[in-house]
Each structure stands twice: as structure tokens, then as C-alpha cells.
From TrEMBL, chain A:
Residues passing through the membrane, by range: 40-60, 90-113, 120-139, 159-180, 211-230, 251-276, 288-307
Keywords annotated in UniProt: Cell membrane, Membrane, Transmembrane, Transmembrane helix
Location(s) in or outside the cell: Cell membrane
Name of the protein this chain belongs to: Rhamnose transport system permease protein
InterPro entries reported in the protein's UniProt record: ABC_transp_permease
Region forming the signal peptide: none
UniProtKB/TrEMBL annotation, chain B:
Location, primary (coarse class): membrane
Subunit structure: The complex is composed of two ATP-binding proteins (LsrA), two transmembrane proteins (LsrC and LsrD) and a solute-binding protein (LsrB).
Species whose genome carries this gene: Phyllobacterium trifolii
Subcellular location: Cell membrane
Any one GO molecular function term: transmembrane transporter activity
Stated name of the protein: Autoinducer 2 import system permease protein LsrD
Superkingdom of source: Bacteria
Chain's role: Part of the ABC transporter complex LsrABCD involved in autoinducer 2 (AI-2) import. Probably responsible for the translocation of the substrate across the membrane.
Pfam families attached to this UniProt entry: BPD_transp_2
Membrane topology: Multi-pass membrane protein
UniProt keywords, alphabetically: Cell inner membrane, Cell membrane, Membrane, Transmembrane, Transmembrane helix, Transport
């Protein structure tokens, strides 16, 4: 029954995105061509990857506000590494990016796990610290395209079956995350420790450790995106991805991931990110000022939250009745 | 809000009032403030100067005004991340009104009115529709600032009437600016509201156990709505002061302030899980943050490096008591 509800939710998002694409293509015939759709997907790849990381953290009843700062720091680090040592192979740079991201994520995780500090406070702090460290590392200087090597810049742009490697990376990550979330102990533990932490403890799950690993996953994916971001935009500076952490949360909320933890799916996060990506790419096409993007995503988030709440609201026991209204006071609320 | 509620241990015997006073969070914070003050006056010869110190207060007065209302909101177990966006929208509305030739009293009314209006929107969504405040206010944050971007785009409003400058640049007497006096008055008003009224006790009750509060006949929704309205009102007032001080409005005004304001509140000893905290702590935290940024500014430290210090300050002040508590609990065994 609950599974069917989720299916319904994701189908609804698919339909909404399809309607959006249809409407936009009537305004501009070139919009819904395969080439342009591949472009939009490619453009949204980084958001999809980050949203999946954010999803794992939100599922455990936590939140990671430091992802964008992590992207900025890792991006700056690998950009500078590439500029300083052009002879290093790309694989090594990728490993460095993943490791830095994982360490930054683990720092968040340690505070949440060992000291039991609310994740919002920890990541609020590390958000400013990581971005500040990117400044300290670079001294405020930019790493520009001419300082980066050709493989560093070009690899994510290589076309493979009509889609750049960047897009394929997102597809691979989506597949891996789907397997992790549905087929591994860790994935199920993540759902369990968000859905009902007390019950999870009784079931033998270390909730704190599960949260720690969720943060490590989120950090590692952010590290990967640090490289992808710098390579895609061919520049590294302190303010890259500023405010992007909210986009990742927005993608999750639109995708039906409950901020109370335990509810949500990989498909939901991907569709939420795609929804944001499609609207962002469509606005210029239908002649709406790009400045409207922010207000639109804000309205969509609010609408999605209202929609989610209606679906998540469990029927509570009726304990009290308001005198005037027959409205139920919900225990779960 | 996430995380499992902390265990509240009730000691067999209460300490004497003196030991409780010196062992309190506020006392620790006050000591930190004094240390920073001494360090600053040793580090820079320009620090100990009445006018310089008066200038330093502008660093925190506007944020602190919002932080007072935010403290009440966080104590009640909710949060408002849209405050900076409310400031931006209120400032934009005042800018548009100034272009239309409206005088100073009208501008102030519009600024405060927009703030209250935004607070009402948040209040309806959180208290009325019972949605989680953290996601709702992430949504309204994009919405409010998004509207400011739609109105202003990449332009800026200026040309405020000369008399409007008083709120941000005027002095009541000697070195005491209007903003600082307003800050002091509001601190007293909020301290009385939280610590000496029925309303304040109810806010604590809701934060400690919303369910029990409901059973004790507290109108939880109404109080939460009032708190969101208050936060909107204070953001409106802060917008008047900030706009008057800067003399111009861009849609990116007060960007990132929501995080600084939450940091200020949490640094002030307010539990992010709700139910505990004092206005006195927030006042001292405001001074600490203002002194740190101003002192570092005198030493030519760039703003982004200061933010590292603020982030570290937040994490260290939160973790230190937890580590000490863990250490203490381990010892008796």
C-alpha cells in the first residue's frame, strides 16, 4: 500500500515534468528535441548527484547544509592541484577529490555521531568553515581555464552515445545509489534509523554510526561534484556553488523525501532535481526573466511541502476534539 | 527538528545560586567576551576608542534585533530561515516606495508592514497548515528574495529622503547610535516578554514538550503564529535600519544573514532542540560576534576568514559542554 503511494508520487512528478516539457515545446519548437533534453540532463547532473547525497542524510533525520561549501573547497583544491602539477593523471585527481569530500563529510558525521550534536548546527558551522578554508587555501585567487590541463577539462565533456561523460557519471551514481539504498544493509539501516530511531536501536542498528556513514556518502558525492563543477565551468573560485545546498534540499523536498526522515526514494530525488533543472533551462526559452527562477523554486518548494504533508500525515488517535470544529488533533503532527 | 531529545538529568541537590551563576552558559560566554575584548585592545591600538567601539556596534545590532525574535522561535522548537529574505523584500518595497516619492514615515510603515506580512505567511504555513518550519522557511526564503530579484533584477534602488538616514546613521546622544539604543530597548522588551510573562512561559512549555503543552490548555498554534509574526516584525525593523544605514537596496542585501542570526542565537546558549535559552545569552553572543568581526577587521583580516572564526566559535561552544558532560559522566562509573 505504502509502496504504491510512492509509485504514485513519482509517476505524478514524471507526468508534471512531461507536461512542462510539452508546454515549453509549444512555445519553442527546439526545446523538446533529444539533443536539448540531453543538454538539460547534463546541466542537471551535478544537482542530481548532490541531491542523492542530501537524500541519504535527510533520510536519517538529519540535514547537510555544508554540501555546497564542500564542493567549493574540493573544487578549489583539485583545481589548484591540477594547476600546480599538470603531470598528475586524472584518476589520481579524482581519488583526491573523493577523499577530500569524504573527510569533510566524515567531520560532520563525527560531530553528529560521537557528540550527538544536531546536524543543522554542525553543518551550519562547517558550511562557513569549509568555504573559508577554500579562501585560505587559494588566498582569494582564481584558477582559470588556461591553468588547467586538457584531460582535466575535457574528460567530462566527451560525448558517449550522444550524452557527455558528465551525464553518464550521474546515471552511474544514480544506479549505485539505488543499489545501496535498496539492496545493502547500510541502505536499509539508513531508512530504519530515520523512520523510527528507537525501533532501529532495538533492531540492532547503530543509529549514530548510520548517520555518520550517511554524511560520509554525502561528503564523497560532494567531493566528486567539486571536480565536476570546476571542470564543467572551467574555473575555480571561492564562491562557486554558493547557496547550492538549498537547491539540493529543494530537490529532495520536491521529490517527496520527508524532512522528518525515513521516507523517500532515489527516483524521487532524481525527479526533484530534474524538475528544478527543466524549469531553470526553460525560463529563458519562454522569455521569463532568469531572475524569476528563485521565486518559482520557492513557490514549488512550498507547494511540495504542503503536498508531502498531506501524504505523510498518519491518522492519529482522536484524543481531544476542538470544541467548535470537529477537526482532529493529530498525534503525529 | 531532528535528533533525539537530550536526557535531562535532575541533580539530587541544587548548587548554591552563586555556583549556578558562575557555572552558567551566560557566565562562560561573558568571560569569552571579556577575553576577546582584552585580546582586541592588545592586538590593535585603534580598538579602545569610544567612536570606534560605537562603529563596532553596527556589526551586530541589526542582526541581534532579529536574533531576539529568532531566539523565542527556536526555544519554541521552530526555526525561521527566511529572515534575511524578509529583510531583502522589505528593503525592496521601501526602495520602490521611495522612488514613488513617499516620505520617511510612510517608508518605515511599509518596511515594517512587509516584514509583518511575510511573518504572517510563514505563520499560516507552519502554525496553520502544521508544516515543518525548516523546509517551509527554506521555501519562503527563496520566494521572498525571489520577488525582490524579480522587482529589482540587477538594478539598485537609492534616493531615500534625507530624514530617512536617521535610523541607520543617527545618534541619540554622544556615541550612542539610534540603532544601538533601539537594540538595548528591544533586548529589554524581549527579556521581559520571555522571562516575566505568561506568554514566555508558554513558549518554554511548547519547546520542552509540545504535546504536554497542548494538554495543559496552551494554544500551541496561536503562540507559534505570534512568534512567526514577531520574527517578521523584527526583520522589518532590521530592514528599516539596514536600508537607512546603507542608503541603497540591492536584491542581495543581507545575503547569508539567516545563518549568522541562527549562529548568534545558538551561541547565546539557546538549545536548537528547543525549550532552553535566555535573552541575556543572546545579547552577550551578539557582543561576542560583533567584537570578533570588528577586532579582526581592524587587523585587516578578510571577511571570509572571519566567517571561519564565527563557524569555529559556534562549533566549539556547542561541543565543549557536551565533551565536558561526557567526561563527567564517565568518571563516577
Amino acid at each position: 500500500m505504502i509502496r504504491q503511494l510512492f509509485k504514485f508520487r513519482e509517476m505524478l512528478l514524471v507526468i508534471i515534468i512531461a507536461i512542462l516539457l510539452a508546454v515549453f515545446s509549444t512555445r519553442s519548437p527546439g526545446f523538446a528535441t533529444p539533443g536539448n533534453l540531453a543538454n538539460i540532463f547534463n546541466d542537471t547532473s551535478i544537482l542530481i548527484i548532490l541531491a542523492l547525497g542530501q537524500m541519504t542524510v535527510i533520510l536519517t533525520k538529519s540535514i547537510d547544509l555544508s554540501v555546497a561549501a564542500n564542493v567549493a573547497f574540493t573544487g578549489m583544491a583539485v583545481g589548484m592541484l591540477n594547476a600546480a602539477h599538470p603531470e598528475l593523471p586524472l584518476v589520481l585527481i579524482l581519488i583526491v577529490a573523493l577523499c577530500i569530500g569524504a573527510v569533510l563529510g566524515a567531520i560532520n558525521g563525527i560531530f553528529v555521531w560521537k557528540l550527538n550534536i544536531p546536524s543543522i548546527v554542525v553543518t551550519l558551522g562547517t558550511l562557513t568553515i569549509y568555504r573559508g578554508m577554500a579562501f585560505v587555501l587559494s588566498g582569494g585567487a582564481w584558477v582559470n581555464a588556461h591553468q588547467m590541463t586538457a584531460p582535466f577539462l575535457q574528460t567530462p565533456r566527451q560525448l558517449f552515445l550522444g550524452l557527455p561523460i558528465l551525464g553518464w557519471t550521474a546515471i552511474v551514481i544514480v544506479a549505485v545509489m539505488y543499489l545501496v539504498m535498496s539492496r545493502t544493509f547500510l541502505g536499509r539501516a539508513i531508512y530504519a534509523s530515520g523512520g523510527n530511531p528507537t525501533a532501529a536501536v532495538y533492531a540492532g542498528i547503530d543509529v549514530g554510526r548510520t548517520r555518520f556513514f550517511a554524511f560520509v556518502i554525502s561528503g564523497t558525492l560532494a567531493g566528486l561534484c567539486g571536480y565536476l563543477w570546476v571542470s564543467r565551468y572551467a574555473v575555480a573560485y571561492v564562491d562557486i556553488a554558493a547557496g547550492f545546498e538549498l537547491d539540493t534540499v529543494a530537490a529532495c523536498v520536491i521529490g517527496g523525501i520527508s524532512t522528518l526522515g525515513g521516507i523517500g526514494s532515489v527516483a524521487g530525488a532524481v525527479l526533484g532535481a530534474l524538475f528544478l533543472g527543466v524549469t531553470k533551462n526553460a525560463l529563458p526559452v519562454i522569455n521569463i526573466s532568469p531572475f524569476a527562477q528563485m521565486a518559482i523554486s520557492g513557490s514549488v518548494i512550498i507547494a511540495a511541502v504542503i503536498f508531502n504533508a498531506r501524504q505523510e500525515r498518519r491518522r492519529g488517535r482522536i484524543i481531544l476534539r476542538d470544541r467548535g470544529a470537529s477537526e482532529q488533533i493529530e498525534v503525529a503532527a | 527538528m531532528s535528533a533525539i531529545p537530550e536526557k535531562r538529568l535532575i541533580p539530587d541537590r541544587l548548587g548554591t545560586s552563586a555556583t549556578r551563576l558562575f557555572g552558567s552558559w551566560e557566565a562562560l560566554l561573558f568571560a569569552v567576551a571579556v577575553l576577546i575584548f582584552i585580546a582586541n585592545s592588545l592586538a590593535s591600538p585603534y580598538f579602545l576608542n569610544a567612536w570606534n567601539l560605537s562603529d563596532a556596534t553596527f556589526n551586530f545590532t541589526e542582526k541581534a534585533m532579529v536574533a531576539f525574535a529568532m531566539a523565542l522561535l527556536i526555544i519554541s522548537g521552530e526555526i525561521d530561515l527566511s529572515v534575511a529574505a524578509i529583510i531583502a523584500l522589505a528593503s525592496t518595497a521601501m526602495g520602490a516606495a521611495a522612488q514613488a516619492g513617499i516620505g520617511t514615515p510612510g517608508l518605515v510603515a511599509i518596511g515594517i508592514g512587509v516584514g509583518v506580512g511575510c511573518g504572517v505567511v510563514n505563520g499560516i504555513l507552519v502554525a496553520g497548515l502544521r508544516l515543518p518550519s525548516i523546509v517551509v522557511t527554506i521555501g519562503t526564503m527563496s520566494l521572498f528574495r525571489g520577488i525582490a530579484y524579480i522587482v529589482l533584477g540587477d538594478k539598485a534602488y537609492g534616493g531615500y529622503p534625507a530624514s530617512f538616514a536617521y535610523f541607520g546613521q543617527g545618534y541619540v546622544f554622544w556615541v550612542f547610535s539610534f540603532e544601538f539604543v533601539l537594540f538595548a530597548v528591544l533586548a529589554i522588551v524581549f527579556a521581559v516578554l520571555l522571562h516575566a510573562t505568561n506568554f514566555g512561559r508558554r513558549v518554554y512549555a511548547i519547546g520542552n514538550n509540545e504535546f504536554a503543552a497542548r494538554f495543559s490548555g496552551i494554544r500551541v498554534e496561536r503562540i507559534k503564529f505570534t512568534l512567526f509574526l514577531l520574527t517578521g516584525l523584527m526583520s522589518g525593523i532590521a530592514a528599516v535600519c539596514l536600508t537607512s544605514r546603507l542608503g541603497s537596496t540591492r536584491p542581495s542585501i543581507a545575503q547569508g544573514w539567516e545563518l549568522e542570526i541562527v549562529t548568534m542565537v545558538v551561541l547565546g546558549g539557546v538549545s536548537i532542540l528547543g525549550g532552553a535559552g535566555t535573552i541575556g545569552g543572546v545579547v552577550i553572543a551578539a557582543f561576542v560576534m560583533g567584537l570578533v568581526t570588528f577586532g579582526l577587521g581592524l587587523l585587516n583580516v578578510p571577511g571570509i576568514v572571519m566567517s571561519i572564526f564565527i563557524g569555529l566559535l559556534l562549533i566549539v561552544t556547542i561541543t565543549l559542554p557536551v565533551i565536558i558532560r561526557q567526561f563527567r559522566h564517565r568518571k563516577p562509573a
